[in-house]
Amino acid sequence: MADHQEASVTLPSAPASVPAARRHVGRVLAEWGMPDGADAADRALLIVSELATNAVQHTRGQSPDFTVRLRLERDERLFLGVSDSHHRMPRRLPAAVQQDNGRGLTIIRTLTAESGGRLAVVPHRHGGKTVWVVLPWLANDGP
Q: pLDDT tens digits, the chain, 143 residues: what are they?
């Protein structure tokens, strides 16, 4: 295998793009050897769904699209990133607000921590940001 593999897709900031992002990531993970239904695949798909949902909901129409990036390094680490061009950074919402909305980042943080990964928000110099999740590559993780 090469030093790393990469894939990306740019989608319109619309609710219909969330399942499209999930399908894209599922196809890429399968191409890279992650079995469909593996626990690691399910976690990665849920994380990308939450990241894409956040990109659509929280940019409030100020980012016309978002990009999903994947990078697999030496069969050891999977990087999942979702970028948008909105200047506002993600933030934790009070528990009262999270009852109906705003739990996406909490879900992402929990899944990432449970997987032994890490989360980072990287601002872009000209506005926008990428929310990155780095997970251990567990292609043989069973269903």
A: 568 999 999 999 999 999 999 999 999 999 999 988 889 999 999 999 999 999 998 877 788 999 999 999 987 999 999 999 987 776 654 444 444 455 678 889 899 999 999 999 999 988 899 999 999 997 655 55
Separation of alpha carbons 9 and 2, rounded Å: 21
| 8 Å CB contact between 142 and 83 | no
Nearest to 69 by CA among 85, 82, 54: 82
Backbone angles phi, psi at 53, to 5 degrees: -60, -45
65's enclosing H/E stretch is strand 65-73
pTM: 0.85
- The answer to whether the Cα torsion of 114, 115, 117, 122 is positive or negative is negative
